[in-house]
Specification:
- The chain has 2 helices and 33 strands.
- By secondary structure, it is mainly β.
- The strands form 6 sheets. Strands 1, 2, 3, 4, 5, 6, 7 and 8 form an 8-stranded antiparallel β-sheet that branches. Strands 18, 20, 21, 23, 26 and 28 form a 6-stranded antiparallel β-sheet that branches.
- A hairpin with a 4-residue loop joins strand 32 and strand 33.
- The protein is elongated, with a radius of gyration of 41 Å.
- The two termini are 78 Å apart.
- About 2% of the residues have low confidence.
Length: 471
C-alpha cells in the first residue's frame, strides 16, 4: 500500500527516514505526535489479532498508539494503548504486540482502519520499525455442504459456498463436472456444471478445496433412466394387474413396503410412463407392493408376469403373501441381462401356495446379492382361458391392410370397432381414433417410419392387438 508518512496535522515532530544496512527506519525527532495515513481502508478485525511495533530510544518514557478508524476518528482520544518505556528499555530495540482487543473493547470495530497515530511525551527522539497487523490464528476454511447432487441431463448445475479469509484452490477428480472458478481469495460461490450421464447407474466426483485446510464435496449425478419396457400384449380381460400403466389395476396398492434393506421409489422413464426403482443395500434385501385392504383372488390365473431392468447381475426372487398368513416359497426369476429390460413369466405352480383367494403382497428379494433394478408391469394372467381357437376367432374377425403401409391402413371387423389406438413399442399412446363402425381408414402420414402396435377395442368388449409396420 502507498503510505503518507508525514501528513500535515500541525505536529512539531520532525519525521525522516534513515537506512540501517538494508533496512529503512522511521526517525521522529522532537516527537510530540505523528501520523501515518494509508491509501485505502484496512478491515483488520476480520482476520488480525495483534498490532506489532518495534521502538528504539534512549529517552522516551511513553508512546501512545492510536489506530484511527474511518467511522471512529471523532473519538480517537479515547481509543489508544500506551506503551511505557523505562531505563531498561533504552538503547535496544523493543518489540511490542498489542492485542486488538485492547482497542475493540474501547469501541473500535477495527474493520475500517485508515490511519495510525503515535503520541510521545514531547521533545524526544524515537525510532520506529516494523509496524504491522498480524495473527497467530490459522484462517478457517469451510464449505457449505459435504455432498450434493446434480441432475442427469447435459449442463445440469448445482452450487456450494466456500467461506474463508484466505486464498484457496478447487479441483474435480472427474472431467464430467466443471467448476465456475478454480482459485480465489475469500468467500466464493462455486457453480458445478455436469455433462449428461449416459449410464444407468449414478456416478460420483470429488471436488477438493484446498486453502488453510482441505475440504471435499462429493458430487453425485443422477443416472440415465431407461426407456419403458414394451407394452404388454395380453388381452386385458385375461389379466389381473398389480402395477402397470397398460392395465386397469385389479387391486389398490397402498404402499411399496420395505421389508428389509430394500426400498422402492417411483421414477418416470425416459419415454414418459412411470415405473419403480428398487435399491437393495444388503444381500437378501426385500420389499413388496402391499394391497392388504383389497386382497387379490388369483385362483383363475396361472402366470405372474414382471419386467425387470437390472443394473448389475442379480438373483431376483418373488414370493406371495396372503391375508391368511400363508407364505409361499421364494421363486427365482432366472438369469437377467444387465442394462436392458427382461420379461419374466413365472407359472403360479412354482409357488407352493400359489392358488390363493386372498393375496395381499408380492415380495421381491435380491438373493445373495444386492444392487439396483427397475420394475414395471407386475400382473397375473391366464393363458389357458385364451384358447387358440378363441384367439383365432378374434383375429379372424379383424383385418388390417395393407401392412406394411405407407399412407393409411384400413381396418375391418365383424363386431363394431369402438376405437383404434396406435402405440409405439414401449407402450406410449401415439394417437387414439374414435370409430364406432365396422370399418375405418386410419391416416399414417403423421407417423415416422417404424414399428407400432394397433389396438382395436370392439363393442363386444374384446380387444385385438396387431403389429403395424409403417414404411
Amino acid at each position: 500500500a502507498n503510505l503518507n508518512l508525514n501528513p500535515g496535522w500541525g505536529q512539531a515532530t520532525v519525521q525522516s527516514k534513515i537506512q540501517v544496512g538494508s533496512d529503512d527506519i522511521i526517525k521522529y525527532a522532537n516527537f510530540n505526535y505523528q501520523g501515518t495515513t494509508f491509501d485505502h481502508i484496512y478491515p483488520v478485525s476480520a482476520n488480525m489479532k495483534y498490532l506489532h511495533i518495534d521502538i528504539w530510544t534512549v529517552e522516551e518514557t511513553s508512546v501512545a498508539v492510536y489506530p484511527i478508524c474511518w467511522n471512529g476518528s471523532a473519538n480517537e482520544t479515547e481509543r489508544f494503548k500506551t506503551i511505557t518505556l523505562t531505563g531498561a528499555d533504552y538503547g535496544v530495540w523493543k518489540s511490542f504486540d498489542i492485542p486488538m482487543t485492547d482497542f475493540t473493547t474501547q469501541g473500535l470495530t477495527m474493520n475500517d482502519v485508515y490511519q495510525i497515530k503515535l503520541v510521545g511525551s514531547g521533545g524526544k527522539t524515537v525510532y520506529f520499525d516494523n509496524i504491522y497487523f498480524w495473527t497467530d490464528v490459522t484462517p478457517s476454511l469451510t464449505v457449505s455442504t459435504a455432498a450434493l447432487t446434480i441432475a442427469q441431463p447435459e449442463n445440469s448445475t448445482n452450487t456450494f459456498d466456500i467461506n474463508t479469509t484466505s486464498s484457496w484452490t478447487a479441483a474435480s477428480d472427474q472431467t464430467w463436472v466443471t467448476l465456475s472458478s478454480t482459485s480465489g481469495t475469500g468467500n466464493s460461490t462455486i457453480t458445478l456444471t455436469a455433462s449428461a450421464n449416459s449410464d444407468y447407474s449414478t456416478r460420483t466426483a470429488t471436488v477438493t478445496v484446498t486453502g488453510s485446510t482441505t475440504k471435499t464435496v462429493v458430487v453425485t449425478q443422477s443416472p440415465q433412466l431407461p426407456a419403458a419396457p414394451s407394452a404388454p400384449m395380453v388381452l386385458a380381460d385375461k389379466v389381473k394387474s398389480v402395477y402397470s400403466d397398460t392395465y386397469t389395476p385389479a387391486v389398490t396398492v397402498t404402499a411399496f413396503d420395505a421389508w428389509w434393506e430394500m426400498t422402492f421409489s417411483t421414477v418416470t422413464f425416459s419415454t414418459g410412463n412411470d415405473g419403480k426403482k428398487a435399491v437393495s443395500t444388503s444381500n437378501g434385501g426385500c420389499a413388496s407392493p402391499t394391497f392388504e385392504g383389497t386382497p387379490l383372488d388369483v385362483t383363475d390365473m396361472n402366470y405372474v408376469h414382471v419386467d425387470i431392468f437390472p443394473l448389475s447381475t442379480l438373483d431376483i426372487q418373488l414370493q406371495f403373501i396372503t391375508v391368511t398368513a400363508t407364505t409361499a416359497n421364494w421363486v427365482s426369476l432366472g438369469t437377467a441381462t444387465v442394462n436392458q429390460w427382461n420379461s419374466f413369466n413365472i407359472p403360479l405352480s412354482s409357488f407352493t401356495n400359489a392358488i390363493k383367494t386372498d393375496l395381499k403382497q408380492v415380495g421381491f428379494r435380491t438373493n445373495l446379492s444386492k444392487g439396483t433394478f427397475y420394475m414395471d408391469n407386475l400382473y397375473f394372467y391366464n393363458d389357458l382361458g385364451t384358447s387358440v381357437s378363441e384367439v383365432a376367432a378374434h383375429n379372424n374377425n379383424v383385418s388390417c391392410y395393407p401392412n406394411p403401409a405407407k399412407d393409411q391402413i384400413t381396418i375391418k371387423a365383424q363386431s363394431e370397432i369402438a376405437e383404434v389406438m396406435v402405440r409405439n413399442l414401449i407402450g406410449q399412446n401415439i394417437k387414439v381414433i374414435p370409430v364406432n363402425s365396422l370399418e375405418t381408414n386410419i391416416s399414417l402420414n403423421d407417423l415416422a417410419t417404424g414399428n407400432y402396435i394397433l389396438t382395436m377395442k370392439l363393442s363386444d368388449g374384446n380387444t385385438v392387438n396387431r403389429k403395424l409396420v409403417k414404411e
